[in-house]
Write a structure and sequence with these properties.
This protein is an alpha+beta fold and 245 residues long. It has eleven helices and five strands; from the N terminus they run ααααααββααααβββα. Strands 2-1-5-4-3 form a five-stranded antiparallel sheet, sandwiched between helices.
Length: 245
Amino acid sequence: MQVPSGASRRPPAFRYGAAVGIVALACALREALTPLWGATAIPFIFFWPAVVLATGYGRLGPGVLALILSALAADWFFIEPRHALLPRTLTDLLALAVFIGAGSCLVLAVEGMHRSEGKLRESERKFAAMFRSLPIAAGIQELPEARFVDVNDAFVRMFGHSREEMLGKTSLEIGMVSDAEGRKRRMDQFLRDGYVRDLRARVTTKAGEILEALVNAELVELQGKKYVLSSARDVTRETRAREEI
């Protein structure tokens, strides 16, 4: 199910009322310039942004309403003969047809942007839900400092720190790792390769317990920023059992 955008969550009366108000404002602005430009010069100048604003605020229906009202207002007030529908000259008819055609494209383009944003938000919501519910500890760190921007519930349970204690900090600042040089060396290697596979690393929990973790990480880029998407599995018991054998 697609997540509704802010525009589609607004009451219809607000969205359609805003479309009418925006067109009325465009008409008033054009009328205010009549002493300077004349009554019929550049009739559509403020109606173009009115259509875009109405669609951006109210979505498809209010955008179509704004387009229709803009065409009628421009024809009635600013195309000769004034105060009469349908212009008499072929040039004015073509201008009105171009406004309606291009305005329709604008409405569809803005609505398409809304739908794309809605799909992106839905994908982000699904990813966040899946990330939080993963049974294995996972974290997301923003480069270049590798500061945590999110961790899942399994990560919190494994290390004992709350999510709030970890966000905005590095593993070194939290105390998960104490070897700054080793961390830098591993990070440089990761940045060169773009991934880490089955790296065994000693990490420390909030309670001071030292664990051996099997770490995997991937370099990802989102909206122009680079992140580390990593997972860690506690293999301390397996390692001790192997050592005992």
